[in-house]
Design brief:
It is a single chain. The chain is of the alpha/beta class and 261 residues long. The chain has a single domain, classed as 3-Layer(aba) Sandwich (Rossmann fold). It has ten helices and eight strands.
Length: 261
């Protein structure tokens, strides 16, 4: 099936919450893969520690030396359901960021295993930085890399080099898109022009629903009718469309590279 990676430029824009909102409204079977080198959040967040912790990503990494068949088998055994439908599943991430350097040589095998699943994959890759522990192979195997950001100048400035990094890694800027969180601040058209990359979707601010997804605070019953989930359903449909080209990078983007007094 198809893999999409979600990243951030830092500043906690809500990548994990966005990934979960998309997964719980995704129109096809889907796997959330926590590939963030800084560690996974879903077991302690959405499940509030009530789900037995599988080895998850680390368990898959242990099988990488035995070949791709072993990786695929272990990956399937490590998936846990996100909801009662069992069509939405989770590959839990690292429990300790000190484990991340050990994954560097096995990311290619993990990426191939994820890309070969009989379900779409939403890979939460966290903040995109420079370093061997980054899941570059997961990004490269993805149909599209989606950078999650809030519509502020600070986040747009931080996003600019990450968009360039992702585009260089993928070899095609059209495979990089933006998901904007909230509509107070810079407009989507301004951000698209500044970064030369389209805003694929905008999700609304919905603190109540975000608290359920990020920290397990509140009930999940009826969550699909809330604003965030309605927006995520629309976003999921938009992500599946062919990417469109954006205009040239504007003077606003160029000015972000100059130091401020």
């Amino acid at each position: 099936m198809t893999m999409y990676s979600l990243i951030s430029a830092g500043g906690s824009p809500g990548v994990t919450t966005t990934t979960l909102a998309l997964a719980l409204t995704w129109p096809r079977p889907v796997i959330v893969a926590e590939c963030d080198p800084s560690g996974g959040d879903v077991l302690a967040g959405l499940f509030a520690g009530h789900l037995s912790a599988p080895r998850g990503l680390l368990g898959v990494a242990f099988e990488a030396g035995r070949g791709q068949v072993a990786v695929a088998a272990e990956l399937n055994s490590q998936l846990v359901p996100l909801d009662e439908s069992r069509a939405r599943r989770l590959l839990a991430g690292l429990s300790d960021p000190r484990q991340a350097p050990g994954l560097a040589p096995v990311w290619p095998a993990i990426a191939t295993g994820l890309a070969g699943q009989e379900a779409d994959v939403l890979a939460d890759c966290g903040r995109l930085d420079v370093g061997a522990s980054q899941p570059a192979s997961v990004l490269a195997e993805s149909k599209m890399v989606l950078l999650v950001l809030r519509p502020t100048l600070r986040q747009v400035a931080a996003a600019r080099p990450r968009v360039e990094m992702a585009a260089q890694l993928l070899g095609d800027r059209r495979r990089v898109g933006l998901i904007m969180i909230g509509d107070k601040g810079l407009r989507a058209a301004e951000i698209t022009k500044a970064l030369g990359t389209p805003v694929i979707a905008t999700l609304p601010h919905d603190d109540r629903t975000a608290a359920v997804l990020s920290d397990g605070n509140g009930r999940r019953s009826g969550i699909d009718r809330r604003r965030l989930m309605r927006g995520a359903r629309t976003a999921a449909a938009a992500i599946g469309r062919p990417p469109r080209a954006a205009g040239p990078v504007s003077e606003l983007a160029a000015s972000q590279g100059r130091s401020r007094p």
